[in-house]
Design brief:
Elements: E1 5-13, H1 20-28, E2 35-36, E3 49-50, H2 63-82, E4 93-96, H3 104-113, H4 119-127, H5 132-136, H6 141-151, E5 158-160, H7 166-180, E6 185-192, H8 197-205, E7 235-243, H9 244-249, E8 256-265, H10 278-290, E9 300-302, H11 309-323, E10 331-333, H12 336-339, H13 346-360, E11 362-363, E12 379-380, E13 386-387, E14 392-399, E15 403-410
Parallel strand pairs: 4-5, 4-6, 9-10, 9-14, 10-12
Antiparallel strand pairs: 1-7, 1-8, 2-3, 6-7, 8-15, 11-13, 14-15
Helix pairs in contact: 2-6, 3-4, 7-13, 10-11
Length: 414
């Protein structure tokens, strides 16, 4: 069973920009992609801002259409960097997407077209007729099929959703398949396009979102004393994963390696994680052990860092338990301060940023932390990017319902 899994290509789309280099420049500069929403009316809503990808002309598309378009963009970029563009991809597609759901505007359209405005009637319209393909596209399951067809991946696409850990779960799934010998390479995509009215209202009802409507760019405040919730956002990332020896044989340059994966669920609550951080500790410690390392070997943590009062406190506690006396000496950064919380895509996006930190030897800042929380005694990279000698990164992704995944990425294969 091979342990070394090389990352040979990456692609990135966020509210900041399209493309890895454009995003990296904006991240290092401490730019914010959070702004007032213009895609739909926001008057009367509790939250009127988010991290919308409004620079790709996707506003007229439903969430599934945005996921597809962003997924195509990041996959094409990753394959080009890996030297695998213009050919069928000899491996499976592993895709992280939002839960399967039809948005209310499309539900109303289906009901209008149906002879009987019932569930059975709407299914009849979706299953046949001249307008059915457009409506079937609102079911996220078709996104994987279309991406697999576009890039010629092998076998049925794997589409999964583990809440905010989905992107990292997709990477773990691909890594385990390569390690087992099920495949030699895999294309991993995380794509999130659910910045729409219904989702904004639902998260608002959970009191999970920041309500700084008068200061969107300053709303995402991970690890700050005055943090008041996360900022909903969208985006996508792709990674080409390969057996390290095969990447070397074809002359591909590994950007980094996936060294370890750790996963743990706490079964504590439908939306909340256990405040004792026990499952998060297991995920982090499991990833480090899987990499054959110790906590002392980790040079940097790309935190989940949502900016909610509970999550940041819990993640800090977990890092203190994992790293012990060294917890305050490990530099930590939270990308969500600039791009918002990209939900299903977050784990993949932050893995790409972690790869860039390893490749470029510099850590993006955590912005909007003018008032540090005195209860969080961590070395948060704040204000400006920080040059650093980094060989290993622990990237954390924690999801609603206690679904937690941590990844160890490194410059060395073993």
């Amino acid at each position: 069973m091979t342990r070394s899994v090389a990352i040979t290509g990456t692609g990135l789309v966020t509210s900041l920009a399209r493309g890895v280099e454009a995003n990296w420049t904006a991240l290092l500069a401490g730019c914010s992609g959070i702004r007032r929403i213009t895609r739909f009316p926001v008057e009367g809503l509790k939250v009127t801002f988010g991290g919308a990808v409004d620079h790709m002309g996707l506003d007229a598309l439903p969430a599934s259409g945005r996921c597809l378009a962003m997924g195509q963009a990041v996959a094409a970029e990753a394959l080009a960097q890996a030297g695998l563009a213009g050919q069928s991809f000899a491996g499976p597609l592993v895709l992280a997407l939002p839960p399967v759901e039809i948005e209310w505007p499309q539900r109303r359209r289906l009901a209008h077209l149906a002879a009987l405005p019932t569930y059975a009637g709407m299914l009849a319209v979706a299953d046949g007729g001249s307008e059915s393909p457009a409506h079937v596209d609102f079911l996220f399951a078709t996104v994987g099929d279309r991406l697999a067809e576009a890039f010629g991946t092998e076998g049925p696409p794997i589409t999964l959703s583990t809440a905010c850990a989905s992107g990292a779960t997709a990477i773990q799934t691909a890594v385990e398949a390569i390690r087992r010998g099920d495949c030699e390479r895999a294309l991993v995509i995380g794509s999130e396009g659910s910045l729409q009215v219904e989702a904004l209202i639902r998260f608002g009802l959970l009191s999970a979102l920041s309500t700084r409507n008068d200061d969107p760019a300053g709303a995402a405040r991970p690890f700050a004393q005055d943090r008041d919730g996360f900022v909903m956002a969208e985006g996508a990332a792709a990674l080409v994963l390969e057996r390290a020896d095969l990447a070397d044989a074809r002359g591909a340059r590994p950007l980094a390696y996936v060294r370890g994966c750790g996963e743990a669920a706490d079964t504590f609550h439908r939306t909340r994680s256990n405040p004792d951080g026990s499952a998060i500790v297991r995920a982090m410690a499991g990833a480090i052990a899987d990499a054959g390392l110790t906590p002392d070997d980790i040079d940097h943590v790309n935190a989940h860092g949502t900016g909610t009062p509970e999550n940041d406190k819990m993640e800090c506690l977990a890092m203190e338990l994992v790293f012990g006396a060294r917890a305050g000496a490990v530099p930590v950064t939270a990308n969500k301060s600039m791009i918002g919380h990209t939900l299903s895509a977050a784990g993949a996006i932050e893995a790409v940023v972690s790869v860039l930190s390893l490749d470029r030897q510099i850590l993006p800042p955590t912005i909007n932390r003018d008032t540090p929380d005195p209860a969080i005694a961590l070395d948060i990279v704040s204000g400006a990017a920080r040059p650093a000698a980094v060989r290993t990164v622990l990237s954390n992704s924690f999801g609603f319902g206690g679904q937690n995944v941590s990844l160890v990425l490194g410059l060395d294969p073993e």
